[in-house]
UniProtKB/TrEMBL annotation:
It comes from Mobilisporobacter senegalensis. It is found in: Cytoplasm. Its cofactor is Zn(2+). The keyword Cytoplasm applies. GO terms for molecular function: metalloendopeptidase activity; RNA endonuclease activity; zinc ion binding. SUPFAM superfamilies: Metalloproteases ('zincins'), catalytic domain (SSF55486). Belongs to the endoribonuclease YbeY family. This is Endoribonuclease YbeY. It is an enzyme of class 3 (hydrolase). Its main location: cytoplasm.
Length: 164
């Protein structure tokens, strides 16, 4: 497994972000029964930078808490059948499945932890689990899909002890 981390802000989280994100990424992979070794890129940034990315890719001129950029187009969420038919899905050097990128605003992690009355660790874990489910093809645009994602997020976080 390859998890690449880039910390692109001077704002410091008062926790071991690598350890938290790695635990959540690994649990998400297990939870979704992914049969492959994977590669995930994780970028932690600030509100100004995530706002620029949000504007560029989603046309929304506001900072957001997390952005997910899946590399795979699934027929159904977490449907790994047929992925080996395309070499584009795998890193040619490592053979790992290229899941995609997670971009998190450190400022939003701290703001939302305070707003929701839980720890920074829990908020970071939540945003990572949420983003991982997007990388596995889940979405929350309609209520039925949103409820599925929410249930999966809570189960992943509960298993790891990241509760409210």
């Amino acid at each position: 497994m390859t998890f690449n981390y880039e910390y692109e802000t001077d704002i410091e989280l008062d926790c071991d972000y690598r350890e938290i994100m790695t635990k959540v990424i690994n649990e998400s992979i297990d939870y979704e029964s992914c049969p492959y070794e994977v590669e995930v890129n994780c970028i932690l940034t600030n509100n100004d930078e995530i706002k620029v990315i949000n504007q560029e890719y989603r046309g929304i001129d506001h900072p957001t808490d997390v952005l997910s950029f899946p590399m795979i187009e699934y027929n159904m969420p977490s449907d790994f059948n047929g992925l080996e038919d395309s070499n584009d899905n795998f890193n040619p050097d490592t053979g790992e499945l290229l899941l995609g990128d997670i971009i998190i605003s450190v400022e939003k992690v701290m703001e939302q932890a305070a707003l929701y009355g839980h720890s920074v660790e829990r908020e970071l874990a939540f945003l990572t689990a949420h983003s991982m489910l997007h990388l596995f093809g889940y979405d929350h645009m309609v209520d039925e899909e949103r409820l599925i994602m929410e249930k999966k997020q809570e189960e992943i976080l509960s298993f790891l002890g990241f509760t409210r």
